Amino acid sequence: MSDVGTFCAESAPVHGERLHEAGAGARSDAGTSFAQLLFGGDTGLTEEEVADSAAKVDTWRVLPARARPKLAHLIVDMVDRATGHEDCTASSSEACQQRLHAWQELDYIFQLTARNVESSGPRDSNQTGPKVDEIITSRIIRAQKQGWKALVEEYHGDAALRRKQDLDQGQPEPTQRILGEPASQQDADAFCRNAKSMQLTTAAACLTAPPVLPDSARLREKLREKIRPIEVEKAEALTRLRHRRLEEMQKKITPKMIQDLDEALAKRASKLKPFKKKGRTGWRNEYIKQLHETPAGPALRRLAIQFLIGKAPLEVYKRYGHVSLGPRDKNGRGPEDPRPVGSPEPFWRWAVGACNQVVEAHSKKLLLPHQFAIGVRSGAEKMGKRTSFDAAQLPGHQWLIPDVYNAYNELDREEAVNDMCEVHPLGGAMSIALYTVPTIYVHDTRGAEGEAGELSVGAP
User: Fold this and answer.
1) For residue 215, what are the β-bridge partners?
2) Is the peptide bond before 369 cis (omega within 30 degrees of 0)?
3) Does the residue 250 lie in any domain?
4) 334 in the same domain as 234
5) 22 and 97 in a common domain
6) Are the beta carbons of 257 and 425 closer than 8 angstroms?
7) pLDDT tens, 240-283?
């Protein structure tokens, strides 16, 4: 594993000196971790409460070009601390705690610096104020000169105000999408945004996909039938699997695999689509794409690599196991038959997508020609044409399409992780790192009580 660690360390340029030069003249506590100021201590807030409030906070979709260099310097410093060479074998060790704090800072950096300005009263459309780049830059300069304490306190005030406004407004009624009827203004706007960026499938879904169901007691009751709590024995078995096989998979990862993963991350970052769902942390696809074009790009890839191969602190994986839930109206029956739809963090989606691309070629060789899902373009159409051809050749046969009742719960995580370990070391390490911790689905729809919306520690 030492070869992999060496490659990860050398694959990114060292920006630490540049960061300190940029911060010359700042207070001596400018580099102090602000993670410890976010929750616990005098705040009286738990990490879960802060996370639920953060999910309601609006962050600007685009980072102004003039503000990106300062954000890049901050992120490079945080990544350097988050990806220290020492593994977190004991979560209570000082080194592991420092790495965890750096990861927590990365989670909240955009909440503190790139959040929209909140107002307790109605907004005046004619009122002008500082530009976005000026606001972001001034917040960063304040942190460098005065420390993070005042900025964190200001953030807590804005987050509480935003949460109150969200709950006071209540949940929006589901959009009624009727064939032949005009689309709602909200759906039409979403369609135009995605069509303009050539995301045609997503644009069509804005008009045809089932609507998100509002949170309710009945909805949660029915969702608990589809997302069952994990059994204690299974959770313990997954923990043992993590301890038993993660290091084994890490040792099998070669520098070439890491290099391929680094290249896949770079390629995927340049092609991330806009207007996707933001994370509970406020991260967006746009942020990853924009910052990847700055000196922070190699650092972000190094962070993603360590995340994927299981080198981050265990608490990080538990944090990313909290998934924003947007249940859909499956068959027009409302909360009686919801379809659970979860959306992981943008960072998670970017990293996992790149890793899947690396593993895909090997998996395709093992499965062809008996599958149409992995590495096959237009797989559904090809499967349909192949089935139609076979049916035409065998007119006397009956064709059955199997379906698994409540398939959401039928996947055996332990078996699936072990299978991935046999397919590819990189896929095995990623599966162990991400899928041996619980998944907790949280209601983040507008007007919903996020902290009360944890449905289960799920198995899928």
Assistant:
1) none
2) yes
3) yes
4) yes
5) yes
6) yes
7) 999 999 999 999 999 999 999 999 999 999 999 998 989 998 89
